[in-house]
Design brief:
heterodimer, A: alpha/beta, Rossmann fold, 3 domains, 6-stranded mixed sheet, 4-stranded antiparallel sheet, 13 helices, 17 strands, about 25% helix, globular, B: mainly alpha, Ammonium transporter fold, 14 helices
């Protein structure tokens, strides 16, 4: 059988061996937790607490700022120390709620709204929206918006993105091995929203144990199947994933729903399960802490808002001084200059690399080898786009499909001349997107 | 601020491939052809090769000094020098070989902006420059190893040639073009490494055979066709010159069109032209068409239809 995959892509060193066999551990949060009001795509949340307020774990501290937005919950009990701009992973200052942890972990008490069978479609969506769930694979698009397409009857596939194609990351892998029933039950909840849809658990074939386990557990689920995908980065990108699983193609101007698909990441689906079945809002997530500079790589259940410094200390700190630390995977993650920034709903990993092979690289001239075009999953010619971006030729950039770039990083990875192709295209896109908003 | 870490844009890992590595692979792949040339034509072939490479590298070095930007470490000048030498007859005066090297690097490459900016293959452009400037010396193929006309010239005159000798390279011609075996061994090495692929050589050779079969006046006579394939600079050109990254289209479709164009042009030059050979001119002409070919073959992005809207709004 031909393997399910896409055209383009790369096979980087995957580095997963360091942490894949480490069971998920709980780590205690530090003394201070920071909750940025913008942890998602869309309008920032609005704080509903003030300095001096005592809050409990599970208490809503900020409400959604619009339909495309998500509320934020305290993940510990304590006192609101400040509502002020704080630095986040990207280096920006973002309005945040700062909570001093009292170490008591008092919570509001969690109860499911009603048994699943009694819940209507609207009630399920309400619970998901109220729980503050956003796409936890990294993009942070509010999940209730994703699950509310114009014509729910036209959705044919609900795809669970279990690809985890980013090198080094193993949090989804551990989640699938340790809590597969929550993932499957979460998928079943989402399937209740789409009566004509089938559920697909799409796993890269470098995780055969997950494929086997999930197949076994879904044997009696007529609406759910498990599909093994060829291991290739970026197999877990939304567009590449939909294509691999269904053969349907979407471009940047379309939504998955346009081709009858809804895609959600493993952690997001488990968050849906916890919100609907246990009544718990989104307060924690799994983060992989790994890299050759980290003393004890592993996978950790983290209270959202915990600073990376505290997370790192829980993983035993650095073995050697790292040159670079990355929030997220090595292909799409952000390099951080400081560890004193909070983890958020979309934090997937903390990577400590002893050698920064990239910053010191001298880019050379393009020799037109075409490798970037060969690996680009968007099927564009990155070297030409980077030229357009360098010259700031807006029309040429658009005509060469510059807006189709998903910033996966394959072109920069493969470029023998070491050109920062992704960076140049990314910057140009940012400028043009900002222009479009005006 | 010493506690801060380094930052840069994603991705944070890179593949091992480098420009110099690719150039080195091409140099290694040309070794069988160069080695055979030295074996077949004698030590003077080695002298021509060394002089030409010294000339290209030195030219790039001096230009680098002048522009305060040293680029010889990317090895591309060595590749150009080696390719040019393999395209020269063994009897060429050494100063001419050196002049060719200077022309290739200075005029064709550096004056247009250096590596990646030249619109013609520097080695081939230099060969054509020498061919026009010194036609007698550039076509003097009589030497110790071979006297008389080249197989292609014999073929054009309607005489018999020994195809097996041509495949091994026991014929007259330029230093690196005679041995099909040596060239194909090198090409296989590059294909296995993924440095080149068969798109351009394949479409080049297939369209050439079809053209010569249809218009060569000898029909699809296997002996004639294989002599045409094995003769002259076709193998060297198809695998090592037409595949030059900088001067071939970057688009996949464009590469096929480019290959077919080269095949047809080589056929036209060989059959209807005054000379027996046509590979160099065909490739150089093809190089000039690359921007046009690319313009019409730019790929359509994932999820779009050809001719449809290209972006939102």
């Amino acid at each position: 059988m031909a393997k399910l995959t896409f055209t383009g892509g790369i096979h980087p060193y995957d580095g997963k061996a360091m942490s894949k066999d480490k069971p998920i551990q709980d780590i205690p949060p530090g003394a201070e937790l920071v909750y940025p009001l913008s942890q998602h795509i869309g309008a920032p949340a609005k704080a509903v607490c003030a300095k001096g307020d005592r809050v409990l774990a599970g208490q809503k501290i900020a409400e959604a700022g619009g339909f495309v937005s998500a509320p934020v919950y305290a993940s510990v009990s304590g006192t609101v120390k400040a509502v002020e701009p704080r630095r986040v992973v990207t280096g920006d200052m973002v309005m945040s709620i700062v909570v001093e942890n009292d170490g008591l972990y008092e919570d509001t008490g969690f109860y499911p709204v009603a048994p699943l069978e009694k819940l209507s479609r609207e009630e399920i969506l309400d619970i998901i929206r109220e729980a503050g769930i956003v796409g936890m694979g990294g993009a942070g698009f509010p999940t209730h918006v994703k699950l509310s397409p114009k014509e729910p009857k036209k959705i044919e596939y609900v795809i669970a993105n279990c690809a985890e194609c980013e090198p080094y990351l193993t949090s989804d892998y551990r989640r699938m091995l340790e809590e597969p029933e929550k993932l499957i039950q979460g998928l079943k909840i989402i399937l209740r929203l789409f009566e004509n849809a089938n559920g697909i658990l799409a796993v890269e074939d470098n995780k055969p144990d997950c494929v086997r386990l999930l197949r076994q557990l879904t044997r009696d689920e007529p609406r759910i199947s498990v599909k093994a995908l060829k291991t290739k980065y970026p197999q877990g990108g939304e567009r590449t994933l939909i294509y691999a699983v269904t053969g349907r193609k979407i471009n940047s101007t379309m939504l998955p729903a346009d081709v009858g698909c809804v895609v959600n990441n493993v952690d997001t689906i488990v968050a849906v399960y916890r919100a609907v079945m246990e009544g718990r809002p989104l307060m924690e997530r799994i983060i992989t802490v790994t890299g050759d500079a980290v003393a004890a790589p592993g996978n950790f259940r983290v209270k959202i808002g915990t600073s990376y410094q505290d997370i790192l200390e829980a993983a035993g700190g650095f073995r050697t001084k790292p040159e670079k630390i990355v929030c997220g995977g090595p292909m799409m993650g952000f390099a951080m200059f400081d560890l004193n920034v909070p983890s958020t709903k979309t934090s997937t990993a903390l990577l400590g690399l002893t050698k920064d092979e990239v910053s010191a690289m001298e880019p050379g001239p393009c020799i037109n080898c075409g490798r970037c075009a060969e690996v680009c999953p968007g099927r564009v010619v990155p070297s030409r786009l980077a030229d357009d971006a360098e010259r700031f030729e807006e029309q040429a950039f658009l005509d060469h499909y510059g807006m189709e770039c998903c910033e996966c990083g394959c072109c920069s990875f493969i470029c023998p001349a070491r050109r920062p192709l992704t960076q140049e295209i990314k910057s140009m896109r940012k400028i043009l997107l900002a222009k479009r908003k005006k | 601020m010493s506690g801060l870490f380094q930052v840069s844009s994603n991705p944070h890992i890179r593949s091992k491939a480098t420009t110099a590595g690719i150039m080195l692979a091409v140099i290694v792949a040309l070794m069988p052809a160069a080695g055979y040339g030295i074996y077949h034509f004698g030590p003077r072939a080695l002298a021509v090769i060394l002089v030409t490479i010294a000339s290209t590298v030195l030219t790039e070095f001096l230009f680098g000094l002048y522009r305060k930007k040293m680029t010889i470490t990317d090895l591309s000048a060595v590749v150009t020098g080696l390719l040019l030498a393999l395209n020269l007859p063994v009897t060429i005066p050494l100063w001419m070989a050196a002049l060719g090297g200077v022309f290739a690097i200075l005029v064709v490459k550096m004056l247009f902006g250096g590596l990646g900016q030249n619109f013609m293959n520097p080695a081939l452009a230099a060969r054509c420059f020498l061919l026009i400037s010194f036609p007698t010396q550039m076509t003097a193929f009589d030497c110790d190893a071979w006297t008389g006309a080249t197989p292609l010239a014999l073929l054009k005159a309607g005489e018999q040639v020994n195809v097996l000798d041509m495949v091994w390279g026991r014929t007259g011609g330029t230093i690196g073009e005679t041995s099909v075996v040596a060239l194909v061994v090198g090409a296989c090495f590059l294909i296995l490494l993924g440095v080149i692929d068969l798109r351009i050589p394949g479409s080049y050779l297939v369209s050439f055979v079809l053209f010569v079969g249809l218009f060569g006046g000898r029909g699809f006579d296997p002996a004639y066709l294989s002599a045409q394939l094995a003769g002259g600079g076709l193998m060297l050109g198809a695998f090592f010159m037409a595949t030059d990254y900088v001067t071939r289209p970057i688009t996949v479709k464009g590469q096929y069109i480019f290959g077919v164009f080269l095949g047809i042009m080589t056929g036209i030059f060989r059959i209807f032209g005054p000379g027996a050979e046509g590979v160099s001119y065909a490739i150089i002409l093809g190089n000039l068409l690359v921007p046009l070919i690319e313009k019409f073959t730019m790929p359509v992005a994932f999820g779009y239809r050809r001719g449809g809207a290209r972006h939102a709004k």
